[in-house]
Amino acid sequence: MRQPIPLRAIQQGHPDTGRGRDTSRPVMLVGFQHQGNLGLGYLTSVLRQCGYDVRVVDIEQDPEEIVKTAREINPVLIGFSLIFQFYVGGYGELVRSLRTGGIRSHFTMGGHFPSLSYEQTLEIIPELDSVVRFEGESTLVELTDAVSTGRDWHDIPGIAFVREGQAIATPARPLVEDLDLLPYPERNYQPDAVLGRSIMPILASRGCARTCSFCSIHTFYRAAPGRMVRTRKPAEVVREMRMLHEERGITIFLFQDDDFPLFGPVWRRWANEFVDELHRNHLPGKVIWKMNCRADVVERELFLRMREAGLYLVYMGLESGSEQGLKTLHKQITVEQNVRAVDLLKSIDLMWEYGFMLLDPSSTFESVRENLAFLRTIVGDGCLPVTFCRMLPYDGTPIKDELVRSGRLRGDVNNPDYDFLDPRLADFYEGLTSVVNVRGWIHGLEAVTLQLSTAWHEVAVMGRLFPSLPGMATYTKTLRRITRKSNHLLLGIVEDLSYTFSDGKENPWVPEEVEDSRKRILEEFITERDAFVYKNEAILLEVLGQPCS
Ligand code: B12
Ligand code: SF4
User: Fold this and answer.
1) 215 ligand 2 Cβ < 6 A
2) Structural domain includes residue 549
3) Residue 424 lies in a domain
4) Does residue 258's CB lie within 6 angstroms of at least one atom of ligand 2?
5) Is 294 in the pocket of ligand 2 (CB under 6 A)?
6) 225 and 297 inside one domain
7) Alpha-carbon gap, residue 478 to 457, rounded angstroms
8) 469 Cα–ligand 2 center, Å
9) Which of 138, 169, 200 is the endpoint of a domain?
10) What is the gyration radius of the CA atoms in the chain, in angstroms?
11) Closest CA to 50 of 135, 111, 139, 130
12) 310 and 407 both lie in a single domain
């Protein structure tokens, strides 16, 4: 079996890859582009470094347009990035349209689901020639080099394919040892913006050392050889931020790290160096940044330092307000630690967001009520809208394996599901979705939660990147009142329904009335928000017309 060629050697034109590289035909990469796709960005940059012309296409585009583009550019290879398992059906349809549309390029696919479940991927989408497993930069270049020159590619490390009806995986390629060897990800797209301030995603590290049972990230990084968590040098991260700020006018950075480096003394040192580096480059005051972390790393001194250096938003996967729930999810954290982290962030006036699962495979009606009590504790004051989802058993996660073992796994890859221990909980969830338009309240573009979250995000950005606006304190108070009202109503409905399904109490909620209340809250919010922005329009526009400093 061929040995994997190190990244640096690939970049420098290793004699083995140099056995031939025909860059006359481009490479096409297809993926979910909303908020910028860093995986595709890195793959594009490395391919370009090796001389390939790369066309990146958004999976949300009309499939006919994608087929048309493929016909026009005649790519040597099309790479599909499947980062959300539930998109596998949609990708399958696109792949079939491309094949029936006469596209004969090599088709490959990468991402968590294809990496961890390559057999299923190749079975669901038999039109794929290969799957690239785990981090794809080096493997994709080797594969494209081989395909472009007509060489055999089946012994390239880090891929899977079907031979004589059998899915075969070559040995996994080691993870990228030094992330700073990678070029900056390609970001040739119009960035999103909040109040005219441009946003870009960025990474300081890859991997996560924790082992939450519902998460495929640690299994993805653990399944390949090499160090599971790698951090970039703080100076390199800041250099990239500075370049993006100076050349593209980016002022809001979203760190998409699975777990921003803060855990333990080594990563705390990393975070402190990162802050020093930001100051050395005079970025605080000019840029702000968001990161994801766990509640158990939140501590006053470091978070105050990071806040001064531009940290404006902290996302925490709190996930449960019940000790049993946290245990089942293998969060290795307590409810008290979750509450303490929230209290601390509130006390230092640092905006935060959270992920939360109302239901998980160990749920009981008691744990649902504990979760509701927890949500009241953390957001009952209206500081943020209530949000929750139901845990889904994704492939490659320990909890899915456990559900298979206990015979409780249901659904399929597109809609993974499971049986609750108490079957009445399934009726409760169904009842909840019929009384409350959960999509309309919590998920979806028109949802109250999303609208209120966006408004709170705007408030955080205004507070950090704009001068103090007249009426800001009153607007924030109003937003808090509306959020409190929405939270109170939603939590009350969920709680009442839990008793309807556990104790047979009468359901006092009429779906039409609930929907009317939801709409009234949304209308009130939109009126208040628009009035505030309109009142300050002149100031906001004036500030945006000037360079950000
Ligand atoms: C950023 C992000 C988002 C962004 C997406 C931005 C974008 N356009 O990419 C936003 C905020 C929109 C988002 C939304 C959601 N997300 Co999200 N998100 C992430 C996150 C944190 C980082 C992704 C990233 O940039 N990674 C860094 C890059 C460098 O790594 P990568 O994408 O894995 O790519 C590498 C390899 O996988 C491989 N590769 C990937 N694609 C390809 C393609 C080819 C051809 C090749 C060769 C190789 C290859 O090579 C790449 C480079 O090494 C991941 C966690 C994670 N670590 O992946 C979750 C994650 C992808 N999200 C997840 C989920 C569940 C969601 C939501 C459903 C959350 C929700 N409840 O709403 C939504 C779904 C949105 C929708 N479409 O409906 C899950 C997916 C689980 C699964 N197995 O399906 C993840 C894994 C988080 C988790 N804890 O489980 N998300
Ligand atoms: S949920 Fe977050 S902390 Fe837990 S393993 Fe996944 S990335 Fe790591």
Assistant:
1) yes
2) no
3) yes
4) yes
5) yes
6) yes
7) 15
8) 38
9) 169
10) 25
11) 139
12) yes
